[in-house]
């Protein structure tokens, strides 16, 4: 068996890209894609598929690339995924499909499944898209709350199966985290827009600036529709509750990224202001933290550090994002935890302690503990808190009957995703807490299936 | 897109707009606000709902043109459209539990107390009202307040109209004269609300203020609007905008509200230049 090394995508030079908002990775060209596809052995009992949360037939679509039939590859992916251009870019492949690839350890590394998925989606979009099948008449009515990946996927599948769908979105732009959170340099917004345009072609109506629970109540939606899907995400930011968090220059990652992405503060002449820091500290080590750190670098910061209380192994971000951030000059302060933000009215520094990890406990988890006497200060004029989000309680507050638990996640039947209110379904981050695009998309599809079935009963 | 049905100039830089918005007018209540974007490039600015008409499907807002976006808004006329108009946001004012209320409005903040004064009058229990401004030209809604108030007191800093002095000058007089208010509802610039709260604390009179914090989404997603109230972090957009004035950390809130002013100022120069 050959041991050809995994192919690398074409990328912008780190020194250049650290100062622009253009997409960092340009993916594979035709030749690279073909070469990478040829690395796939086409296992009969393909382990990679087990790692895919929506069960895409990976060997089959890669097989189609080998045959040079990219449209067919696109059609195979479309059986299970609505957003391949997006998921190909943002899925944590190394802990999903690529984790189980038989080539991973000894055969030159896992097949670059995510990059191939992206290649197929981009190719088809550039070449006129997949054929649109005739859709049955829309005889039922459905409302979808929120236009993130969960809402978009649910709306598409319902529209293709007899539903007239209206999406209600609180913001002035559709796309959820895909437009307000994930930056342009990682996920170009015209990609998200083209997904939304496709939905409109399916007859889906999108009503912006409508806050369900405020502008329209959930009860009203339920009355006017055969089914309702809630995909409101997990947008409520968490702060650490340490002294100094209300100083000017302390942001939640949500606020910082929303100002830059959704409100376009990165563009010359933008109206929405955002602080352009000299030295920025980002607290946390997930995708959101990487995005915030790399964004503040692009906004002109001279020094950007990520402060994280555990070690490199535990960093929850996608492997690629961590590599990209380091290449661009983001400094990692690992095993470090902030205890106070310093300053009189504005941020002047952040006081931290070093941490050490305990031996694994019964669950195998190593806990970080403070190293005595290790206090030190990182000078900075900006702190971006990126330590997680939970579902927004706004909808629940307006509707007692909607059952939630823990940090406000919506309780659902695991099979149908139906909530405590009959005919009202929910999925995505609103149900799981902050998770991933692919899981949200999968949940949207799962709920759509249950809704369609319930109509046929 | 929402149409401007009526525009009226109240002072040199304050305009009243009646906006066509059946969606917002359907559920809105006094004390809530909307967020609008003037055009597709615009920032999201929160503005108080100062009146509404459910039958006509309209919402009235008052805009003081002080920044880039509000100046752009001031250039729009009847028949023009506002690009985005979302709401109602925040919680409604709750004054039911109080028997003897005085409303205090400073500058454009008077817009926030106006719906309350109308509501209280409609409920058959009109309130005493103090409105104040730097000078005569900045006073708004005097006639409307007079029609709905028990007693109306008008104050100007420079004495160009009404009595000379701050709203707190009058409030202190009234409290000293033995008026047994059980609630002061004060809205205006943050330093004014801080002054009112400091005064009423001495008299032990419950005080409600409305925080006009910097906002982005208005739905609790960014935390930019956070204020410290009684040592706890609250979001003005979803927990407020009204809070117990005696518990708000005004010094911090004032610092936070200054943060973007420099950048704003730059834009204003560009716009005027
Ligand atoms: C900065 C950042 C980077 C990320 N990076 C990755 C990544 O690389 N890979 C990955 O897989 N995942 C990533 N994620 C996570 C991923 O984006 C989310 O898991 C996913 O978007 C969740 O989808 P959703 O549809 O459930 O909700 P969201 O995308 O959050 O969408 C919810 C939508 O509902 C709207 N809404 C909320 N309440 C209401 C209401 N009451 N009425 C009307 N509308 C409402 C919101 O405005 C929003 O538009 C990232 C998240 C962030 C913030
Ligand atoms: S305005 Fe964003 S949380 Fe209040």
- CATH homologous superfamily label of the largest domain in chain A: FAD/NAD(P)-binding domain
Q: Which ions, cofactors or small ligands are bound in this entry?
A: flavin-adenine dinucleotide, FE2/S2 (inorganic) cluster
Distance between the termini of chain B: 29 Å
Helical stretch tally of chain A: 17
Shape category of chain A: globular
C-alpha Rg of chain A (nearest Å): 23 Å
**Structure class of chain A:** alpha/beta
Structure notes:
The complex is a heterodimer of chains A (457) and B (273). Chain A has 457 residues and is of the alpha/beta class. Chain A has three domains: 117 residues, Orthogonal Bundle (Fumarate Reductase Iron-sulfur Protein, Chain B, domain 2); 162 residues, 3-Layer(bba) Sandwich (FAD/NAD(P)-binding domain), CATH 3.50.50; 149 residues, FAD/NAD(P)-binding domain, CATH 3.50.50.60. Chain A has 17 helices and 20 strands. In chain A, α5 packs across α7, α8 packs parallel to α17 and α13 packs parallel to α14. The longest helix of chain A is centred in the C-terminal third of the chain and has 20 residues. Chain B folds into two domains: 87 residues, Beta Barrel (Elongation Factor Tu (Ef-tu), domain 3); 110 residues, Rossmann fold (3-Layer(aba) Sandwich), CATH 3.40.50.80. Chain B has a seven-stranded antiparallel sheet with strand order 6-1-2-5-4-3-7. In chain B, strands 11-10-9-8-12-13-16 form a seven-stranded mixed sheet, with helices on both faces. In chain B, β3 and β4 form a beta hairpin. In chain B, α5 runs parallel beside α6 and α6 packs antiparallel against α8. Chain B is globular and about 50 Å long. The mean pLDDT of chain B is 92. The interface between A and B is large, with 39 and 40 residues. Bound molecules: flavin-adenine dinucleotide and FE2/S2 (inorganic) cluster. Flavin-adenine dinucleotide binds next to α8, α13, α15, α16 and α17 of chain A. The site of flavin-adenine dinucleotide (FAD) has 41 residues of chain A, from α8, α13, α15, α16 and α17.
